[in-house]
Amino acid sequence: MMHDTPSSSRKKALRSSIHLFLMSMLAFIIGFLMSYDAATMQDNTWDIDDVDGSITTLDTVINSAAAAFEDDDAPATTLELLGRIALRQRQLNNEIIREYGVFGKDIFNKINVEKIIQLSPLSQTKLLRKIMIKIVLSRIKNQGNEGAEGSSSAPVFQWVTVGDSSAAGYGNAYSQSYTSILQTTVSSIFQSAGIEFVASNRAGDTFSGMEVAFCTKEMFGADVDVLSWDFMPLDTNHFDPLSNSQGMDPLLFGERVGMTYYPQLPFLYFLGKATGVEMQQQLGALENRGVGFAMMTDALREVVLSVPNGNDNDGGGNLPPVASNFHCNGAIEGVEACDDLTQMYQCYSNEGGECKKVKYDVAKECVDPRYQTPWNDGFKMHRLKGRLLGFHMIEMLRLAALELDLLELKQPHLRDSPLETLDILRNEEEVEGFLFSKTTATTSTNESSWDLLKLKKSTCLNAMSILQNSDQRDEVLPIQLHPPQSSICEEFVPFQTAFFRTSYREQRIRLLEPVSEFNEGREVMYGVCLHASICDAGQCEVDPVPIEDTIITVDTVQMSVHGKHIISELTRIGGCYFLGNEEGLIWKEEADGESGITIRTSNTLFVSSFFALH
Question: Taking the model in full, what pTM does it have?
Answer without folding.
Answer: 0.80
